[in-house]
Amino acid sequence: MIRKEHIQNKYHVNASKIYFSGMSGGGIFCFLLASQIPEKIAALAIIAGNIAKPNTLADAPPMPLLYIHGTSDFIYHGTKDLITAEQTVDFWIKHNKCDTVPKLEKLEDENNKDKSSVTKLFYRSTIGADVVFYKIHNGGHHWPNSRFNANNFVDFDLGILNKDFDANQAIWDFVSDYSKKQNSQY
Q1: Whether the predicted pLDDT of 46 surpasses 70
Q2: C-alpha angle with apex 168: 71 to 59, nearest 5 degrees?
Q3: 112: buried, middle or exposed (CB in 10 Å: 19+, 13-18, 0-12)?
Q4: SS3 53
Q5: Confidence bin at 184 (pLDDT 50/70/90)
Q6: Which domains does the chain have, with CATH numbers?
Q7: Are strands 131-137 and 65-70 parallel, antiparallel or unpaired?
Q8: DSSP-derived secondary structure for 149-183
Q9: CA–CA distance, 26 with 107 (Å, rounded to integer)
Q10: Which of 2, 92, 95, 119 is least crowded, fewest Cβ atoms below 10 Å from its Cβ?
Q11: pLDDT tens for residues 162-171?
Q12: What pLDDT shows up at residue 137?
């Protein structure tokens, strides 16, 4: 049996800088992990994943969240099992004691052929657990700036793949600012 200490030592894991990220079902799973093992998580980065019903996060401590979602994504407006993307953001804003009025930044339309655009909404937290929402107007169920279009691999239309920003870089830029030791107040 492999022990966590073995993995931490062999792979030089910094236990204060463990970040969870996922897309779609992986993002929904990350929210579940945030409710089950919040003491392990320094920050979350979720793409196209909403909080499941019922919301089990009320007792979890606040934690920084980067949230990326397309408004034309088939789960943006929720499902019978998921709350909406807007409700997900609203939950985290309240939960993390954030300012309710965000700092808005309209990202440059790097690829006007994709017929989508991005607004970055930054919600400053009074306890160090900020929320950043990349709202992709007309964006579909995709990982932004992916090298492949997932529409080519499914039998239904996932919507527009936004190419205006690099989700990988946005995730790293966000999560790398957080650690459990640094932000022990949340």
Answers
A1: yes
A2: 70
A3: exposed
A4: coil
A5: low
A6: 16-175 (3.40.50)
A7: parallel
A8: -GGGGSSS---B---SS-HHHHHHHHHTT--TTTT
A9: 26
A10: 2
A11: 999 999 999 9
A12: 98
The structure tokens 């529409």 sit at 151
Report the mean per-residue pLDDT for the chain.
93
Tell me, rounded to whole angstroms, the distance of Cα 137 from its chain centroid: 16
Q: What share of the chain in percent tops pLDDT 90?
A: 79
Secondary element (H or E) of residue 116 = none
Alpha carbons within 13 A on the beta-carbon side of 51: 20
Q: Is 169 left (phi over 0), alpha (psi -120 to 50) or beta?
A: alpha
Q: Are 25 and 47 in contact (CB under 8 A)?
A: no
- Tokens standing for 71? 């408004």
Residue-wise pLDDT tens digits, 71-89: 999 999 999 999 999 999 9
| Residue 23 backbone dihedrals phi, psi, to 5 degrees | -120, 140
Burial class, 36, CB count within 10 angstroms (exposed 0-12 / middle 13-18 / buried 19+): exposed
Q: Is the pLDDT of residue 185 over 70?
A: no
pLDDT digits (tens, 9 = 90+) for 136-146: 999 999 999 99
